[in-house]
Amino acid sequence: xNSALYFEGSxxxxxxxxxxxxxxxxxxxxxxxxxxxxxxxxxxxTYSTGTVKVEAxxxxxxxxxxxxxxxxxxxxxxxxxxxxRTLNRLEDVTSGQILVxxxxxxxxxxxxxxxxxxxxxxxxxxxxxxxxxxxxxxxALAMKAAGVRDKAAxxxxxxELLALVGLEGKAQVYPSRLSGGQKQRVGIARALMLxxxxxxxxxxxxxxxxxxxxxxxxxxxxxxxKLGLTIILITHEMSVISEICDRVAVLEQGxxxxxxxxWKIFSQPQxxxxxxxxxxxxxxxxxxxxxxxxxxxxxxxxRAVVRLTLAGSGQKELPLHLLASLGTDTKLLQSDIEYxxxxxxxxxxxxxxTEDGKLPESFSTPVFSDTEVLGYVTPSA
Length: 381
Ligand code: ADP
Prior knowledge:
The protein has eleven helices and 14 strands. By secondary structure, the chain is an alpha/beta fold. It has two domains: about 5-25 and about 70-75 and about 105-280, Rossmann fold (3-Layer(aba) Sandwich); about 285-375, 2-Layer Sandwich (Alpha-Beta Plaits). It is elongated. Mean pLDDT is about 85; it is low at about 1-35. The site of adenosine-5'-diphosphate has 12 residues, from strand 1, strand 2 and helix 2.
């Protein structure tokens, strides 16, 4: 094993690293994002219970760059937890390889594995805090378990991290006195105690309300930028992916069905599973419109209701004059436009006059990646 590769710029092996002082300046330079940090190669995972076998992961191949925030999304049972747990070998793979900093995680002996796990931070959906211990004691445990005895160093590190996660003054509080968001901030501080370069997030915001989710995701992004961390998160919520991830892989029945930059996956979802995961982000048709919508024009004055999709292919904005190409008698019924990684994307719902039951010949939509006639309405006189 080439342990020098584990921590760049250092000749220390995994074992020596367990004894390295962990207090010190909290801001570290951001590493190059394009350098592979985690490589998942041909990974299969089969659970066997008696005669029943479940293939939880099938032929997974992913490379996660240093400094990236990488999302793994999928429906329940898709294999997300199994995959994230193989990265620090909480689960063994059945076949294939996991490389973290070029170290084959599967080849580590128990002692080195313990050290590796200490250097990979992990946060959980239900925070996993000890309720009989204060915030300070919860955080100190991580360092004590790693063999750090220097009380001043522990105190310094805890002070630094509580400031980083916005919990100054909460060191002596018990978790039961904290909100869900504050508990997760403690969870994040605990995960960072031993200065990991890799942070795994297991449905970290699934137990939180939308506003708190937003603040925790902002904190994770901020921490990635300040500490140069690589973050791998699993979630079943596309809103989490769109808010902080650089790239995403979609898991379905144990397989990666698509992966790539978030804006691309959002704008051109290829797989049914991806489209299903995106569905909650889409606005429904207004009820009043739905009630009037007919499959065919019933009147010469019927108007076509058309959904126009913006795929975000490099556009940073939507010049309104492009809408003029739809014709001057176009009415905007609904718009649902957002930015994902700086790309404008979304959908517009418009109504247009029909000519002999068809869209006008002049109808052209160069800026939209897709147009779909949903039905027809007859305006009241
Ligand atoms: P997700 O996190 O996407 O919900 P999981 O990784 O938990 O998916 O599960 C993937 C599949 O593996 C599911 O069919 C699940 O029932 C099965 N599975 C997960 N853990 C075990 C286990 N310890 N023993 C047997 N089957 C398991």
